[in-house]
Write a structure and sequence with these properties.
TIM Barrel; 284 residues; disordered C terminus; 8-stranded parallel barrel; single chain; alpha/beta; 13 helices; 43% helix
C-alpha cells in the first residue's frame, strides 16, 4: 500500500457520498486547504473548460496529497497522453468527458492502469510513493492501480443507451452524468427536472448497480433536483465551482450590508443595530 492513498475512492467503496470542489480559476496551493475546510472530499481540477497548464494542474495535485483531499483532473476528450502525465505528477484520478461507448471506456481504463491491467508506462517512483523507489515494482504498480479513480462522463443519449456496457468495463470506477450537456443532447437544455433526464439518470443508475460502479452527478445545483438524483444513488457529486462559491458568498454579504446602509435605516426611522457584546453608553 502506498504512503499516499485515495481517500475519496475509499469512501465510495464504503457507499458514502463524496463531494467535489470544482477548480476553474484558483491557482494557489491553498486550494486543497480551502476544500478541506469547507467539507469537500476531492478537487475537480478542470482542464477541459478551465485555462490550466499541465504544470499548474500538477502543482495543485501535489499540494493536495498531504491534506487528504483527493486531486482529480478533468482532461479534454481524447487527451489521454496528458492524463497519464498528470497521474505521474500527483493526480489520483482522471475524469474523461464525452465517453459514448464501451470501446472508448476500455481504451481509457487501459491507459490509466499499469500492466497487466492496462498499458500505462512506469515513469519512475510516483508521488504516491513520495518519490521513493518501491522495493517491488510489480507490487507498487498493482497498489497504484488500486488508488487511481477513473471517471467517465455520460453526456449523450448514445452514452445513456450504452451505460450498461460502459459500466461493465474493468477499471472504470464512476459514470458521471454531465447534466448540462446531456440535457442539451436530449433537446431539453438546462431542464434538470425534466422526465427525460430523470429517465436517463435511472438508466445509468441501474447500469452502475448491476456492475458495481458508482453513479456520479454533475451540473445539478437546485436542492430538489440534487435530492432526487442522490436519492436515486448518486454518490460522486461535483459541487459548485470556485467562482460560483465566490459569487454566492460575495452576493450574500454585499446584499446584507447594502440592506444596512445608514440612509435607508434613517428613512425607515431606525437606528443601526448595535454590535453584539457592546452596550450603549446611556445604558452603562
Amino acid at each position: 500500500m502506498p504512503p499516499v492513498q485515495n481517500a475519496a475512492k475509499r469512501k465510495l467503496a464504503e457507499g458514502k457520498l463524496v463531494l467535489g470542489f470544482l477548480v476553474h480559476h484558483l491557482r494557489t496551493v491553498a486550494v486543497p486547504l480551502l476544500a478541506a475546510a469547507s467539507d469537500h472530499d476531492f478537487l475537480f481540477i478542470d482542464t477541459e473548460h478551465g485555462a490550466f497548464s499541465v504544470q499548474e494542474a500538477t502543482q495543485l495535485c501535489l499540494a493536495a496529497l498531504p491534506t487528504g483531499i483527493t486531486p482529480l483532473v478533468r482532461v479534454c476528450a481524447g487527451a489521454l497522453d496528458e492524463a497519464t502525465r498528470l497521474l505521474d505528477n500527483g493526480a489520483l484520478g482522471i475524469v474523461v468527458p464525452h465517453v459514448d461507448t464501451a470501446k472508448q471506456a476500455r481504451h481509457i481504463a487501459e491507459a490509466f492502469h499499469y500492466p497487466p491491467a492496462g498499458t500505462r508506462s512506469w515513469g519512475g517512483p510516483p508521488p504516491a510513493y513520495l518519490y521513493q523507489p518501491p522495493a517491488d515494482v510489480a507490487e507498487a504498480q498493482a497498489a497504484v492501480n488500486a488508488e487511481v479513480l477513473t471517471v467517465v462522463m455520460i453526456e449523450t443519449a448514445e452514452a445513456v443507451a450504452n451505460a450498461a456496457d460502459i459500466a461493465a468495463v474493468p477499471g472504470i470506477d464512476v459514470l458521471l452524468i454531465g447534466s448540462f450537456d446531456l440535457t442539451t443532447d436530449l433537446g431539453i437544455p438546462g431542464r434538470m427536472g425534466d422526465p427525460k433526464l430523470v429517465a436517463a439518470y435511472q438508466a445509468v443508475a441501474n447500469a452502475c448497480r448491476k456492475h458495481g460502479k458508482v453513479l456520479g452527478m454533475g451540473g445539478i445545483n437546485g436542492q430538489e433536483d440534487s435530492a432526487r438524483y442522490i436519492g436515486m444513488g448518486a454518490r460522486f457529486v461535483t459541487n459548485a465551482s470556485d467562482h460560483a462559491y465566490l459569487l454566492e458568498g460575495a452576493r450574500a454579504r454585499t446584499g446584507f450590508l447594502r440592506g444596512l446602509t445608514v440612509g435607508e435605516l434613517a428613512e425607515a426611522g431606525k437606528k443601526p443595530p448595535k454590535a453584539k457584546g457592546k452596550r450603549d453608553k446611556t445604558e452603562a
